[in-house]
Amino acid sequence: MQAATDVSVPELGASLAGKPRVDVKEVEVFRHHVDEIQSKVDQLERRINDVDQFYLNLSKKQISTSKGSSIFKEKEKERPITSIKKQQQEAARRETVAAKRMHELMRQFGTILRQITQHKWAWPFIQPVDVKGLGLDGYYEVIDKPMDFSTIKNRMEARDGSGYKNVWDIYADVRLVFKNAMKFNPEKSDVHVMAKTLLDKFEEKWLQLLPKVTEEEKRRQKEEAEAQLDMQLAHAKIAREISNELYEVDMNLEELRDVVIQKCRKISAEEKRSIGNALTMLSPEDLSKVLEIIAQSNPGFQSAAEEIEIDMDAQSDSTLWRLKFFVKDTLEVQGKTATSAGGAINTTGPNANKVAHNSTKRISNALMKRAKKRNKKPY
Protein backbone atom coordinates (compact mmCIF):
# COMPACT_ATOMS: atom_id res chain seq x y z
CA MET A 1 0.00 0.00 0.00
CA GLN A 2 1.48 3.37 -1.03
CA ALA A 3 1.02 6.72 0.68
CA ALA A 4 -1.77 8.77 -0.84
CA THR A 5 -0.92 12.22 -2.11
CA ASP A 6 -3.90 12.63 -4.40
CA VAL A 7 -6.86 11.36 -2.39
CA SER A 8 -9.42 13.76 -1.02
CA VAL A 9 -12.75 13.42 0.71
CA PRO A 10 -14.71 14.69 -2.31
CA GLU A 11 -13.03 12.06 -4.51
CA LEU A 12 -13.87 9.31 -2.06
CA GLY A 13 -17.51 10.37 -1.99
CA ALA A 14 -17.82 11.06 -5.69
CA SER A 15 -18.97 7.54 -6.48
CA LEU A 16 -22.11 8.11 -4.45
CA ALA A 17 -23.35 10.25 -7.30
CA GLY A 18 -25.26 8.48 -9.98
CA LYS A 19 -26.65 5.91 -7.57
CA PRO A 20 -29.69 3.93 -8.68
CA ARG A 21 -33.20 5.22 -8.10
CA VAL A 22 -34.36 4.75 -4.52
CA ASP A 23 -37.56 2.84 -3.87
CA VAL A 24 -39.59 4.96 -1.44
CA LYS A 25 -41.35 1.94 0.05
CA GLU A 26 -38.06 0.20 0.72
CA VAL A 27 -36.72 3.35 2.40
CA GLU A 28 -39.77 3.42 4.66
CA VAL A 29 -39.25 -0.23 5.57
CA PHE A 30 -35.59 0.42 6.42
CA ARG A 31 -36.56 3.48 8.43
CA HIS A 32 -39.13 1.47 10.37
CA HIS A 33 -36.53 -1.21 11.18
CA VAL A 34 -34.02 1.42 12.26
CA ASP A 35 -36.62 3.08 14.54
CA GLU A 36 -37.37 -0.27 16.14
CA ILE A 37 -33.69 -0.92 16.76
CA GLN A 38 -33.21 2.59 18.17
CA SER A 39 -36.12 2.01 20.56
CA LYS A 40 -34.55 -1.23 21.74
CA VAL A 41 -31.19 0.48 22.22
CA ASP A 42 -32.82 3.23 24.34
CA GLN A 43 -34.48 0.63 26.55
CA LEU A 44 -31.23 -1.27 26.93
CA GLU A 45 -29.39 1.93 27.89
CA ARG A 46 -31.89 2.60 30.67
CA ARG A 47 -31.55 -0.94 31.99
CA ILE A 48 -27.77 -0.77 31.80
CA ASN A 49 -27.85 2.46 33.81
CA ASP A 50 -29.89 0.68 36.50
CA VAL A 51 -27.33 -2.13 36.64
CA ASP A 52 -24.45 0.38 36.77
CA GLN A 53 -26.10 2.21 39.65
CA PHE A 54 -26.60 -1.05 41.54
CA TYR A 55 -22.97 -2.08 41.27
CA LEU A 56 -21.88 1.45 42.20
CA ASN A 57 -23.85 1.12 45.43
CA LEU A 58 -22.58 -2.43 45.87
CA SER A 59 -18.96 -1.24 45.81
CA LYS A 60 -19.72 0.96 48.82
CA LYS A 61 -21.01 -1.96 50.86
CA GLN A 62 -19.18 -5.16 49.99
CA ILE A 63 -19.85 -8.48 51.61
CA SER A 64 -17.17 -11.15 51.96
CA THR A 65 -16.02 -11.94 48.42
CA SER A 66 -14.76 -15.47 48.97
CA LYS A 67 -17.76 -16.55 51.00
CA GLY A 68 -20.21 -14.65 48.85
CA SER A 69 -19.01 -16.15 45.58
CA SER A 70 -19.57 -19.74 46.68
CA ILE A 71 -22.96 -18.94 48.19
CA PHE A 72 -23.88 -17.03 45.04
CA LYS A 73 -23.39 -20.13 42.86
CA GLU A 74 -25.57 -22.24 45.17
CA LYS A 75 -28.30 -19.61 45.45
CA GLU A 76 -28.38 -19.12 41.69
CA LYS A 77 -29.42 -22.75 41.33
CA GLU A 78 -31.83 -22.89 44.25
CA ARG A 79 -33.58 -19.54 44.62
CA PRO A 80 -36.19 -18.11 42.27
CA ILE A 81 -35.25 -14.71 40.86
CA THR A 82 -37.75 -11.94 41.56
CA SER A 83 -37.92 -8.43 40.17
CA ILE A 84 -35.74 -5.57 41.41
CA LYS A 85 -38.77 -3.72 42.76
CA LYS A 86 -39.89 -6.72 44.79
CA GLN A 87 -36.35 -7.15 46.09
CA GLN A 88 -36.34 -3.56 47.29
CA GLN A 89 -39.75 -3.94 48.93
CA GLU A 90 -38.62 -7.12 50.67
CA ALA A 91 -35.42 -5.42 51.85
CA ALA A 92 -37.44 -2.55 53.34
CA ARG A 93 -39.79 -4.98 55.09
CA ARG A 94 -36.85 -6.96 56.45
CA GLU A 95 -35.22 -3.77 57.73
CA THR A 96 -38.40 -2.78 59.56
CA VAL A 97 -38.69 -6.18 61.24
CA ALA A 98 -35.01 -6.13 62.23
CA ALA A 99 -35.40 -2.63 63.71
CA LYS A 100 -38.30 -3.89 65.86
CA ARG A 101 -36.20 -6.79 67.12
CA MET A 102 -33.36 -4.41 67.99
CA HIS A 103 -35.81 -2.11 69.76
CA GLU A 104 -36.89 -5.05 71.93
CA LEU A 105 -33.27 -5.78 72.84
CA MET A 106 -32.75 -2.14 73.74
CA ARG A 107 -35.86 -2.29 75.93
CA GLN A 108 -34.41 -5.28 77.78
CA PHE A 109 -31.13 -3.42 78.11
CA GLY A 110 -33.08 -0.52 79.62
CA THR A 111 -34.23 -2.89 82.39
CA ILE A 112 -30.59 -3.68 83.23
CA LEU A 113 -29.72 0.01 83.19
CA ARG A 114 -32.53 0.86 85.64
CA GLN A 115 -31.33 -1.84 88.02
CA ILE A 116 -27.82 -0.35 87.98
CA THR A 117 -28.93 3.27 88.33
CA GLN A 118 -31.18 2.37 91.28
CA HIS A 119 -28.23 0.98 93.23
CA LYS A 120 -27.29 3.01 96.30
CA TRP A 121 -23.81 3.68 94.91
CA ALA A 122 -25.01 4.94 91.53
CA TRP A 123 -25.69 8.56 92.55
CA PRO A 124 -22.22 9.96 91.56
CA PHE A 125 -22.80 8.80 87.97
CA ILE A 126 -26.38 9.94 87.33
CA GLN A 127 -25.60 13.48 86.17
CA PRO A 128 -22.62 14.91 84.25
CA VAL A 129 -19.58 15.60 86.43
CA ASP A 130 -19.67 19.16 87.83
CA VAL A 131 -16.07 19.87 86.96
CA LYS A 132 -16.14 23.57 87.89
CA GLY A 133 -18.24 23.16 91.03
CA LEU A 134 -16.06 20.37 92.38
CA GLY A 135 -12.88 22.14 91.37
CA LEU A 136 -11.64 19.21 89.33
CA ASP A 137 -8.76 20.93 87.56
CA GLY A 138 -7.32 18.93 84.70
CA TYR A 139 -10.41 16.71 84.36
CA TYR A 140 -10.72 17.24 80.60
CA GLU A 141 -7.01 16.61 80.17
CA VAL A 142 -7.52 13.10 81.58
CA ILE A 143 -11.03 12.30 80.30
CA ASP A 144 -11.49 12.50 76.53
CA LYS A 145 -15.21 11.73 76.42
CA PRO A 146 -17.26 12.43 79.57
CA MET A 147 -20.33 10.23 80.04
CA ASP A 148 -23.17 9.86 82.58
CA PHE A 149 -26.45 7.96 82.94
CA SER A 150 -28.74 10.93 82.28
CA THR A 151 -27.04 11.48 78.91
CA ILE A 152 -27.44 7.78 78.09
CA LYS A 153 -31.12 7.82 79.12
CA ASN A 154 -31.87 10.90 77.01
CA ARG A 155 -30.23 9.36 73.97
CA MET A 156 -32.14 6.09 74.45
CA GLU A 157 -35.41 8.02 74.49
CA ALA A 158 -34.55 10.33 71.57
CA ARG A 159 -37.00 10.35 68.68
CA ASP A 160 -35.20 12.80 66.39
CA GLY A 161 -32.82 10.26 64.86
CA SER A 162 -29.97 11.02 67.25
CA GLY A 163 -30.71 8.01 69.46
CA TYR A 164 -28.86 4.72 69.74
CA LYS A 165 -29.16 2.39 66.77
CA ASN A 166 -28.00 -0.80 68.50
CA VAL A 167 -27.38 -2.26 71.94
CA TRP A 168 -23.61 -2.35 71.59
CA ASP A 169 -23.42 1.46 71.51
CA ILE A 170 -25.37 1.72 74.78
CA TYR A 171 -23.22 -0.97 76.33
CA ALA A 172 -20.07 0.93 75.38
CA ASP A 173 -21.34 4.20 76.91
CA VAL A 174 -22.36 2.53 80.19
CA ARG A 175 -18.89 1.03 80.51
CA LEU A 176 -17.42 4.46 79.69
CA VAL A 177 -19.23 5.99 82.69
CA PHE A 178 -17.47 3.65 85.07
CA LYS A 179 -14.13 3.58 83.21
CA ASN A 180 -13.91 7.39 83.33
CA ALA A 181 -14.54 7.41 87.08
CA MET A 182 -11.90 4.69 87.64
CA LYS A 183 -9.42 6.48 85.41
CA PHE A 184 -9.70 9.92 87.06
CA ASN A 185 -10.07 8.87 90.71
CA PRO A 186 -7.36 7.06 92.77
CA GLU A 187 -7.75 3.30 93.04
CA LYS A 188 -8.71 3.28 96.73
CA SER A 189 -10.96 6.31 96.63
CA ASP A 190 -14.70 5.86 97.28
CA VAL A 191 -15.73 6.87 93.76
CA HIS A 192 -13.23 4.46 92.17
CA VAL A 193 -14.43 1.56 94.34
CA MET A 194 -18.09 2.40 93.69
CA ALA A 195 -17.49 2.55 89.94
CA LYS A 196 -15.60 -0.75 89.86
CA THR A 197 -18.29 -2.50 91.92
CA LEU A 198 -21.13 -1.30 89.71
CA LEU A 199 -19.16 -2.14 86.56
CA ASP A 200 -18.78 -5.74 87.74
CA LYS A 201 -22.52 -5.97 88.50
CA PHE A 202 -23.33 -4.47 85.12
CA GLU A 203 -21.08 -6.96 83.28
CA GLU A 204 -22.80 -9.87 85.07
CA LYS A 205 -26.22 -8.69 83.95
CA TRP A 206 -24.94 -7.96 80.44
CA LEU A 207 -23.74 -11.56 80.08
CA GLN A 208 -27.35 -12.67 80.54
CA LEU A 209 -28.47 -10.55 77.58
CA LEU A 210 -25.40 -11.14 75.41
CA PRO A 211 -26.58 -14.45 73.82
CA LYS A 212 -29.69 -12.72 72.48
CA VAL A 213 -27.60 -9.86 71.14
CA THR A 214 -25.18 -12.25 69.44
CA GLU A 215 -28.04 -14.26 67.94
CA GLU A 216 -29.62 -11.09 66.56
CA GLU A 217 -26.30 -9.99 65.05
CA LYS A 218 -25.86 -13.31 63.25
CA ARG A 219 -29.45 -13.22 62.03
CA ARG A 220 -29.01 -9.65 60.77
CA GLN A 221 -25.80 -10.52 58.94
CA LYS A 222 -27.42 -13.55 57.33
CA GLU A 223 -30.43 -11.53 56.19
CA GLU A 224 -28.24 -8.78 54.76
CA ALA A 225 -26.08 -11.33 52.92
CA GLU A 226 -29.16 -13.05 51.49
CA ALA A 227 -30.67 -9.73 50.44
CA GLN A 228 -27.41 -8.75 48.77
CA LEU A 229 -27.25 -12.07 46.92
CA ASP A 230 -30.87 -11.77 45.83
CA MET A 231 -30.12 -8.36 44.36
CA GLN A 232 -27.02 -9.71 42.64
CA LEU A 233 -29.05 -12.54 41.15
CA ALA A 234 -31.70 -10.15 39.93
CA HIS A 235 -29.14 -7.90 38.29
CA ALA A 236 -27.29 -10.89 36.86
CA LYS A 237 -30.57 -11.93 35.24
CA ILE A 238 -30.97 -8.44 33.81
CA ALA A 239 -27.40 -8.54 32.52
CA ARG A 240 -28.06 -11.84 30.75
CA GLU A 241 -31.27 -10.47 29.22
CA ILE A 242 -29.47 -7.33 28.06
CA SER A 243 -26.71 -9.44 26.55
CA ASN A 244 -29.26 -11.52 24.64
CA GLU A 245 -31.11 -8.44 23.44
CA LEU A 246 -27.87 -6.79 22.35
CA TYR A 247 -27.07 -9.89 20.35
CA GLU A 248 -30.52 -9.68 18.78
CA VAL A 249 -29.93 -6.01 17.91
CA ASP A 250 -26.59 -6.93 16.34
CA MET A 251 -28.28 -9.59 14.24
CA ASN A 252 -30.96 -7.14 13.11
CA LEU A 253 -28.32 -4.62 12.13
CA GLU A 254 -26.39 -7.32 10.30
CA GLU A 255 -29.50 -8.29 8.35
CA LEU A 256 -30.21 -4.67 7.45
CA ARG A 257 -26.63 -4.16 6.35
CA ASP A 258 -26.78 -7.25 4.12
CA VAL A 259 -30.01 -6.04 2.55
CA VAL A 260 -28.53 -2.61 1.89
CA ILE A 261 -25.38 -4.11 0.38
CA GLN A 262 -27.48 -6.26 -1.94
CA LYS A 263 -29.12 -3.09 -3.22
CA CYS A 264 -25.77 -1.39 -3.80
CA ARG A 265 -23.70 -1.70 -6.96
CA LYS A 266 -20.22 -3.25 -7.07
CA ILE A 267 -17.25 -1.21 -5.90
CA SER A 268 -15.13 -0.23 -8.90
CA ALA A 269 -11.39 -0.82 -9.20
CA GLU A 270 -10.83 2.95 -9.03
CA GLU A 271 -12.82 3.14 -5.79
CA LYS A 272 -10.80 0.29 -4.32
CA ARG A 273 -7.61 2.20 -5.13
CA SER A 274 -9.03 5.36 -3.56
CA ILE A 275 -10.04 3.49 -0.42
CA GLY A 276 -6.63 1.85 -0.13
CA ASN A 277 -4.83 5.16 -0.57
CA ALA A 278 -7.15 6.90 1.88
CA LEU A 279 -6.32 4.37 4.57
CA THR A 280 -2.81 5.80 4.73
CA MET A 281 -4.22 9.11 6.00
CA LEU A 282 -5.97 7.63 9.02
CA SER A 283 -4.78 7.91 12.61
CA PRO A 284 -3.53 4.76 14.38
CA GLU A 285 -6.80 4.56 16.30
CA ASP A 286 -8.93 4.79 13.16
CA LEU A 287 -6.66 2.34 11.39
CA SER A 288 -7.30 -0.17 14.16
CA LYS A 289 -11.04 0.24 13.51
CA VAL A 290 -10.38 -0.48 9.83
CA LEU A 291 -8.71 -3.75 10.77
CA GLU A 292 -11.69 -4.61 12.97
CA ILE A 293 -14.08 -4.01 10.06
CA ILE A 294 -12.04 -6.31 7.83
CA ALA A 295 -11.77 -8.97 10.53
CA GLN A 296 -15.54 -9.06 11.08
CA SER A 297 -16.20 -10.57 7.66
CA ASN A 298 -12.89 -12.43 7.49
CA PRO A 299 -12.56 -14.73 10.52
CA GLY A 300 -9.09 -15.82 9.43
CA PHE A 301 -7.78 -12.25 9.16
CA GLN A 302 -4.97 -11.67 11.68
CA SER A 303 -5.65 -8.07 12.70
CA ALA A 304 -3.22 -8.30 15.61
CA ALA A 305 -0.35 -9.76 13.58
CA GLU A 306 2.99 -7.97 13.46
CA GLU A 307 2.85 -7.75 9.65
CA ILE A 308 -0.43 -6.99 7.91
CA GLU A 309 -1.16 -6.90 4.20
CA ILE A 310 -4.56 -5.76 2.95
CA ASP A 311 -5.68 -6.98 -0.44
CA MET A 312 -8.61 -4.82 -1.55
CA ASP A 313 -9.51 -7.26 -4.34
CA ALA A 314 -9.97 -10.02 -1.77
CA GLN A 315 -12.52 -8.08 0.30
CA SER A 316 -16.26 -8.64 0.03
CA ASP A 317 -18.60 -5.94 -1.25
CA SER A 318 -20.00 -5.58 2.27
CA THR A 319 -16.54 -4.93 3.71
CA LEU A 320 -15.59 -2.54 0.90
CA TRP A 321 -18.73 -0.46 1.32
CA ARG A 322 -18.23 -0.31 5.08
CA LEU A 323 -14.60 0.75 4.58
CA LYS A 324 -15.67 3.33 2.01
CA PHE A 325 -18.18 5.03 4.28
CA PHE A 326 -15.97 4.74 7.37
CA VAL A 327 -12.98 6.34 5.64
CA LYS A 328 -15.14 9.06 4.08
CA ASP A 329 -16.76 9.98 7.41
CA THR A 330 -13.45 9.82 9.29
CA LEU A 331 -11.61 12.08 6.85
CA GLU A 332 -14.47 14.57 6.90
CA VAL A 333 -14.27 14.71 10.71
CA GLN A 334 -10.50 15.14 10.52
CA GLY A 335 -10.98 18.01 8.06
CA LYS A 336 -13.51 19.78 10.28
CA THR A 337 -11.30 19.29 13.36
CA ALA A 338 -8.26 20.68 11.58
CA THR A 339 -10.24 23.64 10.25
CA SER A 340 -11.62 24.50 13.68
CA ALA A 341 -8.08 24.32 15.05
CA GLY A 342 -6.94 26.94 12.55
CA GLY A 343 -5.57 24.71 9.83
CA ALA A 344 -6.52 22.09 7.28
CA ILE A 345 -5.38 18.64 6.35
CA ASN A 346 -2.94 18.78 3.46
CA THR A 347 -3.46 15.71 1.32
CA THR A 348 -1.25 16.78 -1.58
CA GLY A 349 1.95 18.13 -0.02
CA PRO A 350 4.88 16.60 1.90
CA ASN A 351 2.90 16.63 5.15
CA ALA A 352 0.56 14.04 3.67
CA ASN A 353 3.44 11.60 3.37
CA LYS A 354 4.35 12.28 6.99
CA VAL A 355 0.80 11.64 8.17
CA ALA A 356 0.60 8.47 6.14
CA HIS A 357 3.90 7.24 7.51
CA ASN A 358 2.99 7.86 11.15
CA SER A 359 -0.58 6.60 10.88
CA THR A 360 0.09 3.37 8.99
CA LYS A 361 3.52 2.49 10.25
CA ARG A 362 2.20 -0.87 11.34
CA ILE A 363 1.01 -1.76 7.84
CA SER A 364 3.58 0.15 5.76
CA ASN A 365 6.49 -1.41 7.60
CA ALA A 366 4.97 -4.83 7.08
CA LEU A 367 4.70 -4.27 3.34
CA MET A 368 8.23 -2.94 3.21
CA LYS A 369 9.49 -6.02 4.99
CA ARG A 370 7.56 -8.26 2.61
CA ALA A 371 8.99 -6.37 -0.39
CA LYS A 372 12.53 -6.81 0.93
CA LYS A 373 11.93 -10.50 1.45
CA ARG A 374 10.65 -10.87 -2.11
CA ASN A 375 13.57 -8.89 -3.58
CA LYS A 376 16.25 -10.57 -1.46
CA LYS A 377 18.29 -13.04 -3.52
CA PRO A 378 19.32 -16.34 -1.94
CA TYR A 379 23.02 -16.95 -1.39
TrEMBL record:
The Bromo domain, residue ranges: 117-192
Keyword Coiled coil attributed: yes
Keyword Transcription: yes
Record field: compositional bias (Basic residues): 369-379
PROSITE patterns, per database record: BROMODOMAIN_2 (PS50014), NET (PS51525)
Chain spans, region Disordered: 341-379
Keyword annotations of the record: Bromodomain, Coiled coil, Transcription, Transcription regulation
Coiled-coil segments on the chain, per record: 27-54
Sequence ranges of Polar residues compositional bias: 341-363
Domain called NET: residue spans: 257-338
Protein name: Transcription factor GTE6
Species per Swiss-Prot/TrEMBL record: Trapa natans
